[in-house]
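pipeline/complex-builder :: batch 7 item 3
reading input block
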Amino acid sequence: MRLFLVLTLLLGIAAHLLLPIAPLREAQAIDPALADLLLVQLRLPRTLLVIGYGAALGVSGAALQATFANPLASPDISGASSGAALGAVIGGYWLGLSQPLALAACGAAGALVTLGLLVGLAGRKADTATLLLAGLAISLAAGAATSLALSLAPSPFAFYDAFDWLMGSFVDRSLAQAAAALIPAGIATALLFRRARALDMIGLGEDVAASLGLRPRRLSLEVIALSAIAVGACVSVAGAIGFVGLVAPLFGRRLSRGHPGSAMFPAALIGAILLTLADLAVRAVPLDRSIPVGVITALFGTPLFIWMVVTMRRRLTA
Amino acid sequence: MTSLQAIEIALDQRLQPTNIEAPAGQLVALVGPNGGGKTSLLRALARVEQASGRVTIDGENLDAAPEARRRRLLSFLPASRDVTWPISARDLVALGLDRPDEDRISELLALFELEPLANRPVDRLSTGERARVLTARALASRPRLLLLDEPLSNLDPYWVIRFLEIFRASASSGQALLVALHDLAQLPHFDRALLIADGKVQMDETPAKLVAGERFGEIFRIRENADGQWEVRQPEDRRSSR
């Protein structure tokens, strides 16, 4: 199954790099160097960003779910993505930052603040309803604050400018931007992977984990900080994309036989595949305009989310 | 030989500074009224919370033991039977081990008669079945000390007897066990009993002496009647005893 996922991902990457093939062919006919330029300068950053962001969402979603012992905790539901967007908007339109890495830091800071708020409001061991409500409240507040920050921004074009990016977009991102998102996200993700076994043990309950010498509190703070960095850096470059961080861990756990920590690796693969497919769908739309990627992920994510809520309700009442 | 030695362990309001020793091979019952401190004592011994004092097992300081070593020194089974994730029974038992050991896992599944349930997700087991899986996990690493919080609740009579037999076998193999209990009828199966109330060890006796002691009835607010049955003390008794 994992092999199948890897193959699917490779296929997706190839498709993402090469499709649509017509412009590449035309460029090739004019000048082979131009085709290379097109591939390396335009297509490659986008492909890297798409798989990196998807993987980061899968991993941080799985890690957050393991930490909160809740299958609905994820970067979007927790409000971390909205917080990251707010952080990037403040950094970009109010502090006048333009360095991609500085913006990534603002995004991470925003995500960290919202996750901190979530823990403060709902606690680390919140039940599902409390977690959802607290996350919803934080998302709404962060969304409103983002709109306010854009409305009052010094630049009169801020709102129009940001709309495209806020719901997720990979159009025309430079290699520098891709690096600003992917280097912090890659480091954070690697550090999260190292905690897979500990997060599996947390599945036995925090008391058992603590009796085995783990430090559940410290572990959850580390996971929250690392997830905030991974998601925040990606959001600052490519906007807030929902549902991938919720859905990828769900299927990841199918492959890890229910283990929440070991689910991070398959969740990374699945997240990367989902976002690659979503971005391919965006580019396949034969219009002169671009649809935000977040719209595509929401289209397939919302029914799944509703299904999860319904099955959870059934299990709770059973 | 002393297996467990705890010196001055305490948990804020819940457990006053306590010293406890338990030799290897001893089956120790913890009894006491609700909220008296049984769970707090087990949590302090297991170092679940940052407790003061010092716990040594076979002379080894628990706080200084690395994770892999700790599994061999101690296992803690909380009273809660909740499991969040749909892990199979077999995989959950395997989490009790450092590295996969199929023989040991099969042995435990057989001991707790879990083979037919081995591949079922634990969230789809009954509470009693889940109790068997969780206890098997706690026993898996053959720790020197087992701290079991209410392991016999939710079990049917067959499994209460089987669990007591399994605990006795563990003790005979040289493990020390501290077991929190509610059902006083189970006390005679233990070598020693601690009565815990108001965050303190109030009595430390053989089960027979413990039950016969006057303080036992006072603390539990019960007494043995002429038929040898436990009954609630009358309010005037309670007043005079307190």
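note: DSSP finds 14 helices and no strands in chain A.
queue -> next item
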